[in-house]
Amino acid sequence: MAGVIGAIDGCYVPIDAPQVDAQYYRTRKCEYAITLQAVCDPELRFTDVFAGYPGSVGDLRVFRNSPLYRDTEANVQNFFPNGEYIIGDKAYNPPLPWCISPYKNIGHLTAIQISFNTILSKTRQTIERTFGLLKGRFRRLRHLSMVCYEEIPDTILACCVLHNICLQQEDDFLELYIEEGLPFVYGNEGDEIGQYEPAGETGGAKRDRLAAALANH
């Protein structure tokens, strides 16, 4: 997919039940968690990370309240000067010019749209592998038990920084870490699709152009 510079997704970091407002941290898997939203590049490096929202909050709501969304919407040209974009799963609908999501499948997709969704899904597997590597290397993130809950988001972000530092070195066990961590990679897509105002024709039109270009290619 020409122009892709990253993939975005959310991932749970399970925690002990908080003493305050524990119900908001309870996930659909009946555990307690903090959500890590991250963007990665093709080399599995994190280029943007945001942590702190409780596990009951869907990925779209986390995204819309993240500094990434706020800062980019304020000045898209500053972050994506040449029309680049990131890709996400169906939770990130409707598409934005700088964040492309798959077509919603309600049984009426064209062959071009189905092909586009398949290619996008394969391309965005990079973020799943990145999360797998993170949790394979830093096993505490499979269940982060800490007394000071206020420090949990910073601890998660620190692991993401160390993740990038480790990638600067040659690592013979990279695939082993990914394989070990992938079973612990899951999040909350939520049921929020359509509850925000559409992004207008721009995001959808760009997705259509990308789909047509891939089909012609």
TrEMBL record:
Residues 8-164 form the DDE Tnp4 domain. The keyword Lipoprotein does not apply. Keywords: Hydrolase, Metal-binding, Nuclease, Nucleus. It is found in: Nucleus. The keyword Hydrolase applies. Its cofactor is a divalent metal cation. One of its GO terms (cellular component) is nucleus. It comes from the Eukaryota. One of its GO terms (molecular function) is hydrolase activity. Its main location: nucleus. InterPro entries: HARBI1-like, HARBI1_dom. Belongs to the HARBI1 family. PANTHER family: GH03217P-RELATED, PTHR22930. This is Protein ALP1-like isoform X1.
